[in-house]
Specification:
CATH superfamily of the largest domain in chain A: Homocysteine-binding-like domain
Structural class of chain B: alpha+beta
Number of strands of chain B: 8
Order of helices and strands of chain B: EHHEEEHEHHHHEEE
Strand order of the largest sheet of chain B: 1-2-5-8
Strand content of chain B: 15-25%
Shape of chain B: globular
Strand order of the largest sheet of chain A: 12-13-14-15-16-17-18-19
Largest interface: A-B, 69 and 61 residues
CATH architecture of chain B: 3-Layer(aba) Sandwich
Helix content of chain B: 25-40%
Radius of gyration of chain B: 18 Å
Mean pLDDT of chain B: 91
Distance between the termini of chain B: 31 Å
Oligomer: heterodimer
CATH class of chain B: Alpha Beta
Strand content of chain A: 5-15%
């Protein structure tokens, strides 16, 4: 018998339809796990598969969708029995295949959810090992509504078997996964991971999938699987039924086949009848595989970014070279600083963010994986993983949610043999630097030759030319006068090789005054010579001006609409700065909650005023004023928090002027929302106010176990702890935390707050203080340390 | 694979009118208070909301004192038992505002606590308002007792698991549960709404 991967190249093959629908017809009660029948009623499962094979399906899905080690202790037995049932039905049939069906773990992955990425890989890996041993023909990863979990499942399949991998995701009517990815993003990631076929299943009927199939036809080079539901469920005469019948379903499937659907089948609500009719109507229409697409693209968990004629901006700010604040943030693991840089660049309009965290004194690999995950929790831009450390690169690519841009490979043997296999395994756009063992060639031709060498080697490793973006390396003209000319010539030559180009633009002006003038002019020249990507500073007005003007001038900005928006937002910003001139002091800026102005004013004050005086005579009195207004109900929480934001920003500036050892770090508090409670808004408000008053806050977040609170207080020798709870059901958890703290150290004072608490409750559970609101808590903490 | 009796309700952001009182209560502001920040966050929220609700109608058994048997889960709760007293059936539902709200809140938490607070409060009000909207659609002309949720009174949060599983909430709504039974997306609600045992139902 042919392999499934060979067969799909020759003819249309068909999946089976719904499993649950048929089994519930055989008497499976709603809410009961159908997988148990693999062991208790295998004859019914075999009969289900037989019905589908008889209807014309080539591939049946094993009855193992919900099985994993977390849900079933006997997962191995359930999988083995499930595969045995399908194998039994396939026995003696031609072109009949068994797909090991692997569904979601049911948990959302970190950072939004609680399941760690490697834990998800491990859960899937355990399933795959059993499936490979028991004789499945392929692995079907299906009904996945999250790209990250999909990646975990694919990696588990690749790393634990040689079986072909098919993947289908759940899209909604707007053509996106529930966690945000569109088909282009999923295709980019899955093709990068080298799956064998991809597509969509569940949630939608064939009518809606017909509207989405065009996206797959446009972007996919792989066979496209379409397994729709029988429409949507609705209530008819007191019964829940799907609203599309077999006849109508198969009519849509015919249209889907004509629009690019390669492998067809069904999902919820479909029965053997649906598959029979679909096979009948589509088996004789001409069959062609999707064409090989030639896009250069990378992706995030929401969208793909295509590198083509429209210039791509790669934000360079998360790279410690020459940035003392970022270096400090990396050393102290101040992720907030890094995340802020990510958000600011994203708001400034870049398409991709460069992430380089290489410092000799830190563990680069750990920091990279942590940063990749954290940055992906606050921005949906694709990331460029930038490192010279191969281990860091591999680990960064692994935890990345999507298809990353990799910076970089170069023409040295060592680099190519380490980087190319990683790109083959995880998928990625690849920046290729024109440098090799002999250094950077002086001539454009020399650089183009290295590019050609890398392209050829990449091909040997199975990395296509379309993935490669060549960076011919701009060196500063201050020490290499010919650098700009050679680099521009290189860009032109390299584009003729049929690959895209990138440059670290800012390097060109290193060592010169007023660098923006040189850098932005060079950027304009480079664009004119065919540059695709620029690693650049998006906060440079000159650079952004060039970018927007170039797009408008080269018909890349229809109706100049992006340019007009850009120009008017610049004008608006100038206007805003002028308007806030009414608040002339730091005090007024804090009271009015004007963050930028507060930062400006504190800078002016610090010229002639001692840092501690700025805090005690300007920031604190301003906060007290708005705090009192809040207590008297003359101001509300949003205003109080705006002021706290402004004060915190000002405080940060002051802190940098305080010589080490002088800051009042003894004023500290541990804050936590207790275990079982998700509501942390109250705690967060207290945190902001505490910080704006200069407290060091150890914020443990929400849903915090008592032991974690104790450990933190002990570790930092902190004698003040604030606990918050919002639900009545979590007050016992608060009492437990207090008890543990009291047992540990009677000197630790505990204040509590939250919607369900009052003085009486607080006394009952043994708290030292009940904070009625955020200001009240601050006043207590101030008193505690006075 | 899913339970074939689960029904779905979806709504666009503008379909659901966010309850003003709820909003003001959560923001802690006086009646009809408004400012630039609140307006800005309202606009932001509207672009993030993706309302989805899944529900079933199911028999309930109250024969054992202080225990409600749903067939697929047992709830030991004096408060819920009292709430459902006299009902033979209930609607069980779960709903969410979608994961985009969580992502934006994570971002706001880094940039601005004021914006975070306001967006969080507005999103909570939106979830409550969608809950009213969905409950109205679900019950139609059927009269129901006030709805009840895990975490209220003595009704354990651990019930979230069987309830969400029964509704196929992970696939239909994208709701997942942490080991301590908290839902992601954060602005999600589960509820039980007893059907009044009257002849016209």
């Amino acid at each position: 018998m042919k392999k499934i991967t060979e067969l799909i190249k020759e003819k249309r093959v068909y999946f089976d339809g719904g499993t649950g629908t048929v089994l519930q017809g055989m008497g499976l009660p709603p809410g009961q796990s159908p997988e148990l029948w693999n062991i208790t009623s295998p004859e019914k499962i075999i009969s289900l598969h037989n019905m589908y094979f008889d209807a014309g399906a080539n591939i049946v899905k094993t009855n193992t969708f919900g099985v994993n080690r977390q849900k079933f202790d006997n997962y191995e037995e359930l999988i083995a029995a499930g595969i045995k049932c399908a194998r039994t039905a396939a026995q003696g049939r031609e072109n009949a295949f068994v797909a090991f069906d692997m569904g979601s773990t049911g948990q959302l992955l970190e950072p939004l959810g609680s399941l760690a990425f490697e834990d998800a890989v491990s859960i899937f890996a355990d399933n795959v090992k059993v499936a490979a041993k028991c004789g499945a023909d392929l692995i079907l990863i299906e009904t996945m509504n999250d790209s990250y979990e999909t990646k975990a499942a694919v990696l588990a399949a690749k790393e634990n078997s040689d079986l072909p991998i098919f993947v289908t995701n759940v899209y909604d009517a707007s053509g996106k996964l529930m966690t945000g990815a569109d088909p282009a993003a999923m295709i980019a990631m899955l093709e990068g991971l080298r799956v064998d076929a991809l597509g969509m299943n569940c949630s939608l009927g064939p009518d809606i999938m017909l509207k989405i199939i065009g996206e797959f036809r446009k972007y996919s080079s792989l066979p496209v699987i379409v397994n729709p539901n029988a429409g949507l469920p609705e209530v008819r005469e007191g019964k829940t039924v799907y609203n599309i019948g077999a006849e109508e379903f198969s009519d849509y499937m015919l249209r889907i086949a004509n629009e690019g659907g390669t492998i067809l089948g069904g999902c919820c609500g479909t029965t053997p009848e649906f598959i029979r009719k679909t096979v009948e109507k589509t088996k004789d229409i001409s069959y062609c595989l999707p064409t090989e697409k030639n896009y250069t693209c990378v992706s995030s968990y929401t969208h793909a970014v295509f590198v083509d004629d429209d210039p791509i901006l790669i934000g360079e700010r998360i790279n410690p070279t020459g940035k003392s604040k970022l270096k400090e943030a990396l050393r102290t693991k101040n992720l907030n600083y890094i995340l802020n840089e990510a958000i600011r660049q994203s708001d400034a309009g870049v398409h991709i963010l460069d992430v380089n965290v290489g410092l000799p004194e830190i563990n680069e690999t750990e920091m990279m994986t942590e940063c990749v995950k954290a940055i992906q929790s606050v921005t949906d831009l694709p990331l460029q993983i930038d490192t010279t450390n191969f281990e860091t690169l591999e680990k960064g690519m692994r935890v990345y949610n999507g298809k990353p841009l990799v910076n970089s490979v170069n023409g040295t043997e060592e680099s190519m043999k380490n980087v190319l296999p990683a790109v083959k395994k995880y998928g990625g756009g690849l920046i290729a630097l024109t440098i090799d063992e002999k250094g950077i060639p002086d001539t454009a031709q020399g650089r183009a030759d290295i590019a050609a060498k890398i392209i050829a080697r990449a091909k040997e490793y199975g990395v296509s030319k379309k993935e490669i973006i060549v960076d011919p390396l701009a060196l500063t003209i201050s020490s290499n006068p010919e650098s700009a000319i050679v680099t521009l010539e290189s860009v032109k030559l390299i584009r003729q090789l049929g690959v895209k180009t990138s440059l670290g633009i800012s390097n060109i002006s290193f060592g010169l005054p007023q660098r923006d003038i040189i850098t932005s002019t060079f950027y304009a020249n480079a664009l004119q010579n065919g540059l695709n990507c620029a690693i650049m500073n998006p906060f440079s007005l000159a650079m952004m001006n060039v970018y927007h003007a170039y797009r408008a001038l080269n018909m890349l900005d229809t109706g100049c609409s992006d340019y007009i928006r850009y120009a008017s937002s610049n004008a608006e910003n100038v206007q805003k700065t002028n308007n806030s001139a009414g608040a002339e002091t730091l005090h007024a800026a804090v009271v009015k909650g004007l963050k930028e102005l507060a930062v400006q004013k504190v800078g002016e004050l610090l010229v002639n005023t001692e840092p501690l005086e700025v805090i005690n005579n300007h920031i604190i009195p301003a906060l007290n004023e708005i705090g009192t207004a809040f207590e008297q109900k003359k101001a509300y929480l949003p205003q109080l928090l705006m002021s706290a934001d402004a004060a915190s920003a000002a405080f940060e500036v002051v802190k940098q002027s305080i010589p080490t050892g002088q800051s009042d770090s003894s004023k500290a508090i541990v804050l936590a929302t207790v275990k079982g409670d998700i509501h942390d808004i109250g705690k967060n408000i207290v945190k902001v106010l505490m910080e704006s008053y200069g407290f060091t806050v150890y914020d443990l977040g929400r849903d915090v176990p008592p032991e974690t609170v104790r450990d933190c207080a002990v570790q930092h020798k902190c004698k003040l702890v604030g606990l918050s709870a919002l639900m009545t059901t979590t007050v016992p958890s608060m009492a437990e935390t207090i008890k543990l703290l009291n047992e540990t150290d009677r000197n630790i004072k505990i204040m509590v707050g939250g919607a369900v608490l009052n003085q009486e409750y607080a006394d009952m559970i043994g708290a030292d203080y009940y904070g009625a609101d955020a200001m009240d808590s601050v006043r207590y903490a101030e008193k505690f340390y006075s | 694979m899913r339970n074939s009796d689960v029904l779905l309700i979806t709504a666009e952001a503008e379909d659901v009118c966010i309850n003003r009182n709820e909003m003001e209560r959560r923001l802690g502001v006086e009646k009809n208070y408004n400012d630039e920040l609140i307006e800005l966050e309202k606009k932001r929220l509207m672009s993030l909301l993706s309302y989805r609700c899944a529900y079933i109608r199911t028999d309930i058994d109250l024969r054992k004192e202080n225990v409600v048997d749903f067939g697929f889960m047992l709830a030991e709760s004096r408060n819920l038992y009292k709430n459902l007293k006299g009902c033979n059936e209930a609607f069980v539902f779960a709903l969410t505002c979608g994961i985009a709200v969580d992502r934006e809140l994570a971002k706001m938490k880094i940039c601005s606590q004021a914006e975070f607070f306001v967006l969080d409060a507005l999103a909570s009000a939106a979830a409550d308002s969608f809950c009213d909207y969905a409950a109205k659609k679900i019950q139609g002309k059927i009269s129901c007792v006030p709805r009840f949720s895990p975490g209220y009174g003595d009704l354990s949060l651990t019930l979230q698991k069987p309830l969400l599983d029964r509704l196929d909430a992970q696939w239909l709504l994208g709701i997942s549960l942490s080991p301590s039974f908290l839902m992601t997306p954060m602005k999600s609600i589960t509820a039980i709404m007893g059907i009044k045992n009257e002849k016209n139902n």
